[in-house]
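ARCHIVE CARD
Drawer: 12
Card no.: 0347
Subject: one protein chain, sequence and derived structure
Cross-reference: see card 0346
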Amino acid sequence: MALPIITFPDVLLKSFANLLIPEFSRYNVKRDYKRIKQITQILLFLVGLVSIFLTLILFLFANNLGTTIYKEASVGKYIQILAPLATLIYVDTVVDSILKGLDAQVGIMIINIIDLLISIGFIYFFVPTLGIYGYIISIYISEILNFTLSFVQLIRIVYFKHKV
């Protein structure tokens, strides 16, 4: 019940982020690596700020959100537990779109497959013994891994492959 609340802003962000793909594709074809680097820095800064702001809202108003949306006070506890992941989820959405525009969709697919396999493994081993907290641990590990691998790939492509 908490995950739809955490990921709702991501639905809106995905619409915006998908518009970045043709823009970055155009710059990549023109080999305008300086512009790619500039726009990447601006986007990551802005999305990072908005993500932190939304994370704080989710964390601080978790109980109100849980009670208002689901009429269930206990949902607020899980929103608070998962709220720190919101920043990673939102920034990762933009990072993935930038990478798709830079023709790195195969890398994203490989990262997502690795993420999926690790998630299934952690759910298989943690949920039977730890219950809901095992599931939360698997979500944290999955999101941190996915974000880290995507972000490293972005840095590698934007800052090292295309030196400006």
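Annotation on reverse: The chain has seven helices and no strands. Residues 132-161 form the longest helix (30 residues).
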